[in-house]
Amino acid sequence: MKHTCLSLALAVATATGTLALLPASTAFAAAPAPAPAAAESSTAPVLVTAAQWQQMASDGARYPWFAKEQARNKAMLEKMMKAGIDVPFPKDKGGGRTHEQHKRNYQALLAAGTLYRLTGDTAYVDYARRMLLEYATLYPTLGPHPEGRGQIPGRVFWQVLNDSVWLVNAVQGYDAIRDALPAKDRQTIDDNVFRPMAEFLASEPKNFDQIHNHSTWAVAATGMTGYVLRDQELVEKSLRGSRKDDAFGFLRQVDLLFSPDGYYEEGPYYQRYALAPFLLFANAIERNEPQRGIFQRRDGVLLKAVDVLVQSSYDGLFFPINDAILDKGVDTEELVAGIGIAYARSGDDRLLSVAEQQGRLLLTPEGLKVAQGLAAGKAKPFDYAPMLLRDGPDGDRGGLAILRMGGERGQVLVQKDTMQGMGHGHFDKLNWLFYDNGQRVVTDYGSARFLNVEAKRGGIYLAENRSWAKQTIAHNTLVVDEKSHFNGDWKVGEDHAPSVRFFEAGKDTQVASATMRDAYPGVVFTRTQALLQHPELGLPVVLDLLQVSADKAARFDLPLHFNGHIVSTGFEAERFVDQRPVLGRENGYQHLWLDARSTPGSDQRTLAWLLDGRFYSYRFGSSAPSQALLVESGANDPEFNLRREPALVQRVDGQRAVSFFSVLEPHGEYNGTAEYVHGADSQIRELKRARGSDAELIELTLASGARIALGVADDSSADVEHSVNVEGRTYRWRGSHARIDRAAGKGGSR
Q1: Which residues form the Heparinase II/III-like C-terminal domain (predicted)?
Q2: Structure pTM?
Q3: Choosing a second label site near 668 at 20 to 30 A (CA), which of 249, 360, 432, 703?
Q4: 193 near 135, Cβ under 8 Å?
């Protein structure tokens, strides 16, 4: 399947914060699943019951968060009602007028149903009725969208994915008013809008019968419509696939797209996006067929996914791996839906602090629970913790290692040892990111895209997403012979995942290690990274050891993409000040300007930069002679689509094996307002790497003479003793790895 891009039309909520309207399945964490409620009639609401609506109508105003959300929705909807109903013939791509109007319409339908139930004002019913009757006139006339892209264009939108999003939202608003409509109008809307839209989605197996977030939206839309229309055939297709053989469908997606830890295959950005249909439809299933035990499936993996998504963030923004947009974070509409549903089911008061950060909630039974918890002062800080999130349905396809110290805005090292991530995945095995002081320090580009900005190719993924953002040189990992991992073929990448070697998350020492095979023929590389605290270092430092071996001599490049202004370069280099050469011709190299280049050598080098009042010193070396290249993105970019960002590339030529090693040290303070500088000098005096018979070791010497060493064995499974000698000092340890500290003046063996 070719994976097409997503657009802003995918929002689950209204512009003012109204979210999908589904019920809390239980009121308390330990409560059993409820029995199916008997429908009062074939038109009574089934996504939120009449009794639940009545409770919200009577109690909601007592809780400030709920009342504020209701007032915001009322203001938004009445503005739209005043402007009049507009159901245009679809003709625009993402961001265009007709595209945006149909988005506003599903938002309005959702809000109208909500406000009718909360206020009893039938003006909202009449507004939604008249709009839906216009859709009932329009929809039967629609064929493939004129701006359709990919194999399956939508009808209302240019990609079928957005049609699914429209239906997920609109059917919830419709469910709330359906029993208030005249029978004739209800039949017209059922037969000409909701049923044909759901059947259209279910009739497209290249979209419906897939294991992918596009399909998740489609099956959720179809299944929720099936419940509202009392059409069990639609429900079964949505749960089990269009052929009802369990090869595809919602249940299969729950089983295959999440790891046992709740990590989603495409990464946090798409976990954020897919979470809404997963949880909204799961809530509908629980309400209508609790005997399926959907929230207990795979040990409660859907609720785990909410916690994992929050954990996969820093300072409110998600880790931008794969085709991610940098400014998406925990306040995104989809996670608002997730937090509400998860809190209603779990009673976990840590989630309330996330809701506070989001500043919004659901106008649903779940939202009422959140509002009640916040009013009672129950919110507890969310526990951001170091963890290894396994990837793959069985948890054996690599993982995302998150190392954390110093609290929510302290230091976070993310080592990306995950699966490919399907078509939205990047070619960046064993890539890493580093955060500190509320900033992105070692960065990932994310996607090359201006979401829904028509001037930038209509808001879709740009050509540079493929030529730059996905390419390996755009990331902080090994490049061999200037080619990307798997030669840039994501389908090949899907068959090969890293192997996690070990993970440790102690108070002062946190370490992650993984090995990658088959990213290049005949090449194996292993990366071990550590986040270390020491009393003589003001802040934790990052140690990085990347070991590579190949069956033939090759060129090895190791980029470091960093954020900040260069303060000093601790190496001699040729500077290209009159003309900027381009680093290469293809595989992303054509997008890099070359600003400086050192001669090959074995001496250690340093690079220091300043970011938001803090200094960062990077000391690096390699086991074979290397060059240091300073580069910047933006070459061969005539439409100015790329951000201009600096990078350092270590280059080793003509070797079959090499170890790259480095330490990144945050330190000091620059205060431009008070005009002072403290701690601008690195506290690390020397960095050494040594090799034993079956292990390697990195040794840091601090300004006082104290030493910190990290030993890494070749065989991570063997519980045997290893030893490495560093200029007469012998380090010994047992097992896969060890940290060994020595006070100043201490030598000899240990």
Answers
A1: 390-649
A2: 0.91
A3: 432
A4: yes
